[in-house]
UniProtKB/TrEMBL annotation:
Superkingdom to which the source organism belongs: Eukaryota
Keywords, ordered alphabetically: Chloroplast, Plastid
Lineage of the species this protein comes from: Eukaryota, Rhodophyta, Florideophyceae, Nemaliophycidae, Nemaliales
Protein name, UniProt field: GUN4-like domain-containing protein
A molecular function (GO) term: tetrapyrrole binding
GUN4-like domain ranges (all copies): 100-240
InterPro entries with a match to the protein in the record: GUN4-like, GUN4-like_sf
The species this protein was found in: Nemalion sp. H.1444
Length: 251
């Protein structure tokens, strides 16, 4: 094995892993490769990864991303007790700030996404969006109507989206879906095919024809029932939450 000197890892890794990766696929690929390499080199490098993760959390110029999610999830599986113990103490609430304008608890969604229980996370996401609609609209409906969406708090939609992005290698989330939809010039048929909800022009059947892991196409999750029409998704994709936060990406 071609070993890297620890000092070189200290200097090179900290510089590379402190770079923002949003919108720069080459930087992200290098970061991901280095993270896996460092993790495999054992205790000292895992301790450095923890230090870098904490530095990224403190640096307000860095948007928390799936790079942070990768480090966090790998360190959770570390064989070194002191690593996992420090991680759980220092980041006991995870790496995404669970903000809500109306007091909704997103910790359950976070736990499911961290543990890659995507089908359960998808169901919970639908429940949370209905909860948002119920609290804002003061009704008891257990499904979303497109008129519910515009009054949903920006901060809550961003929290849900960030959780999905950070804990799916950047593949899933509402803003990812929105970017793909925009890349098709808002063509819903092209959109369904790109995100894998239609295969060979046939709607996928729930749940067994959907993909519940990160081998799915970008934007595959969370699901929405396209058979009921596109109005809810259209309302979500035009919500003010994304107007200043969406990065331009090609799909």
């Amino acid at each position: 094995m071609n070993m890297i000197k620890t000092n070189n890892i200290d200097n090179n890794a900290r510089h590379l892993l402190m770079l923002p990766s949003d919108g720069n696929s080459s930087v992200k690929l290098r970061q991901v490769a280095l993270i896996h390499k460092m993790y495999g080199l054992g205790y000292d490098c895992q301790r450095q990864l923890l230090s870098i993760l904490l530095s990224r959390q403190e640096d307000r110029s860095i948007q928390i991303s799936d790079v942070d999610g990768l480090i966090f999830e790998l360190l959770l599986e570390s064989n070194y007790y002191s690593i996992t113990n420090d991680l759980n103490q220092l980041l006991s609430s995870g790496i995404v700030t669970l903000e809500s304008a109306i007091g909704i608890d997103y910790s359950g969604l976070q736990q499911l996404l961290v543990s890659k229980q995507f089908q359960k996370a998808d169901k919970l996401t639908q429940s949370l969006l209905c909860n948002l609609a119920q609290r804002n609209g003061r009704h008891a409906r257990k499904w979303l109507y497109f008129t519910d969406v515009s009054s949903m708090p920006v901060v809550d939609l961003l929290t849900i989206d960030k959780l999905w992005q950070v804990h799916s290698k950047g593949l899933f989330g509402l803003s990812i879906q929105r970017d793909i939809w925009l890349s098709t010039n808002s063509d819903w048929e092209k959109f369904w095919s790109k995100i894998g909800w239609k295969v060979n022009d046939v709607n996928c059947r729930y749940p067994h024809e959907f993909v519940w892991n990160v081998t799915a196409p970008p934007g595959h999750l969370p699901l929405f029932n396209q058979l009921r029409g596109v109005q809810v998704l259209a309302a979500l994709f035009t919500h003010p939450a994304w107007h200043e936060t969406s990065d331009k990406k090609s799909y």
